Amino acid sequence: MKRSLVAIIAFGAFFLTSCMDIETSKQLDRISEMNTTIDSIEVVFKEHRLDTLAKLSLSAYSVENRIKNNYYSDTISIEFSRKMDAFKVMRRNFAPLGKSMGIIPKSIEEARSKLKELQADIENGNGKREKYEEFVAFEDAKVGQLRTLLKEYVDTKNASVKTYEELYNELNDFSMSLLKK
Q: Which end of the chain lies in a sparser environment, N or C, as judged by fewer CB atoms within 10 Å?
């Protein structure tokens, strides 16, 4: 009787341990996937880093300011007003781009650090094991937010650079012609 009771307890312990190992394995796999995603986010960010942001912002502001201070007409063509509006929107987008350029790298490093800590806790069984799934889900949500932030950054950067390249020379020439009058 004692042997069968010991065998049942041993089998139960083995069964529970194997279930915990499966859950731990799934959590560690999710952390590994998040680390891969973070690596991809970092690569994409480095590929789309806008190193000339200060120069573009300053030159756009100069053009806009020259036109604002030297253009004295009662009427303005619709085409020109649309170009100026697009140029102003582009210039205003440079501030959030600059902010994102500081936030994204910090967020990448913070996410890496938190994932490393969480992985170590899960592997070593530290902390509240019943909360591991909640912690993994929380980190997954943060990685998703980082992915969204990067997408917004890339989209805004591409649209702003495109607008700058399309309009800068024309509006700069126009603003310089105003100084000659």
A: N
| Short-list 42, 54, 51, CA closest to 147 | 42
80 in any annotated domain = yes
* DSSP labels, 42-73: HHHHHHT--TTHHHHHHHHHHHHHHHHHH---
CA angle 112, 105, 99 (to 5 degrees): 140
18 within a domain of the structure (yes/no)? no
* Residue 76 DSSP symbol: -
Overall pTM surpassing 0.85 (yes/no) = no
Number of domains forming the structure of the chain: 1
55-109: per-residue pLDDT in tens?
999 999 999 999 999 888 888 889 999 999 999 999 999 999 999 999 999 999 9
Q: What are 160's two structure tokens?
A: 């702003």
Residue 10 lies in a domain: no
